[in-house]
């Protein structure tokens, strides 16, 4: 009997080792062909810019091309829903955002994905506080002037966003709630087209995350930053609190995820490489020049816990902002 038990135990261990061998071999050989990085927004916005910067550096570290694939629509849901159907082999990654993976679950009746179960968190990349901007030809020189004009003519002024549920939409709705004004929301298919109309003066204002370069070039005027402290890139621009609007904090966050079921060895490898990339001084400077706050490297588990907490937090933000499910 003892010998039979030992034989069965040895056989079970051998089978377990054999079953684990393909996954181990796959992780050791990874990557052996190009990787696709899905950006669920159109070219031109902050998500696209960060995705392309990261793809270039990740290509260099991994020795394989990382191809950016823009799949826009429905506030990022179309590209994200398509992504979760990809093979969990580490060859298709996604730029997850606060819109798609935290706000949208409270805005859309049908997402096409589960914001927790369908993803394997890899790495937190950056957070970009929203900035209240107006065109350079705008008559408004301060937040107070803008609020006074909006109160004098309810519904006359408008603000652009990258779409329903985007960080710009929620920030604009929050601004309405915090100040008691009625500024009309104009959603676009991505923040890039919205900024283009803002530059042309077809939109009165935008509380955006990806147009710092236009502010620094003088094409847009920044009136306030939705953060608890001033941005080093815009030292002369006050926070909303300094401008007289309390509890106005809004930012977009960005991270890299894989489909659920991706081998842990691949997730850990990518986490190590992405954290090394974002810790590099040159890369950090590039991201900070976009107005980003770059966190210290996090583990996949820490990033996963953050993503879950953000889903809970955005339930309150969506309710407070007045954003409706569409």
TrEMBL record:
<comment type="similarity">
    <text>Belongs to the UPF0065 (bug) family.</text>
</comment>
<dbReference type="Pfam" id="PF03401">
    <property type="entry name" value="TctC"/>
</dbReference>
<feature type="signal peptide">
    <location>
        <begin position="1"/>
        <end position="29"/>
    </location>
</feature>
<dbReference type="InterPro" id="IPR042100">
    <property type="entry name" value="Bug_dom1"/>
</dbReference>
<keyword id="KW-0732">Signal</keyword>
<dbReference type="InterPro" id="IPR005064">
    <property type="entry name" value="BUG"/>
</dbReference>
<protein>
    <recommendedName>
        <fullName>Tripartite tricarboxylate transporter substrate binding protein</fullName>
    </recommendedName>
</protein>
